[in-house]
Design goal:
By secondary structure, this protein is of the alpha/beta class. The protein is built from seven helices and five strands, in the order βββαααβαβααα. A five-stranded mixed β-sheet has the order 3-2-1-4-5, with helices on both faces. Helix 3 packs across helix 4 and helix 5 packs across helix 7. It starts with a strand and ends with a helix.
Length: 177
């Protein structure tokens, strides 16, 4: 089975008032004997407005490197939307940690820039699986600590969308074994 792990970083939590500033996706094949990452997509987006102070502080605290200066020369939303749409194709199977959040933001990105809906054929969310399996915190960075880190061997920073995609793949692998 082929599916895509998706993740976004945004300027806030509501699609009404916030936009994507980084979006990533991993095309993954379930080989029956583990997962194989076939391709990866990662792009930052210049939101064309200053980041809110709380997002700047969050990014500083988490050492993501995402700030206004960093985003200034990044592509605009339309270009990224076109490239992401080409990467995912129509009606993909998508997975993620609290993936409904990411689906809503990608849908906004596609609607606003392409006039198209983002309609996954199937959604696999690791968050409810983690809530059934683990006590305590269900944040991706916390549940990721239980995994063998087969796919994210060099992960040192969370809250960048590509790193979080690889951490999610580790969590999915752990939950399915």
């Amino acid at each position: 089975m082929r599916f895509f792990i998706i993740d976004t970083e945004t300027t806030g939590f509501s699609t009404k008032h916030a936009d994507i500033i980084e979006v990533s996706a991993l095309e993954v094949m379930d080989t029956g004997n583990g997962y194989k990452v076939v391709r990866e997509f990662d792009s930052y987006i210049n939101p064309q407005y200053p980041l809110p102070e709380e997002i700047i502080e969050f990014n500083k605290k988490n050492n993501t490197g995402i700030c206004d200066e960093f985003l200034a020369d990044k592509p605009l939303a339309r270009e990224v939307a076109e490239n992401l749409f080409d990467f995912l194709g129509e009606e993909p199977v998508v997975a993620g940690h609290n993936v409904g959040f990411d689906v809503r933001f990608i849908n906004k990105l596609f609607e606003r820039n392409l006039g198209a809906d983002f309609t996954p054929r199937k959604i696999i969310d690791t968050l409810p699986m983690c809530k059934r399996r683990f006590a305590g915190s269900h944040k991706l960075s916390d549940v990721h600590q239980y995994t063998a880190k087969k796919y994210s061997k060099n992960l040192t920073v969370y809250h960048t969308s590509l790193a979080d995609c690889y951490a999610t793949l580790d969590v999915l692998d752990y939950l399915n074994n």
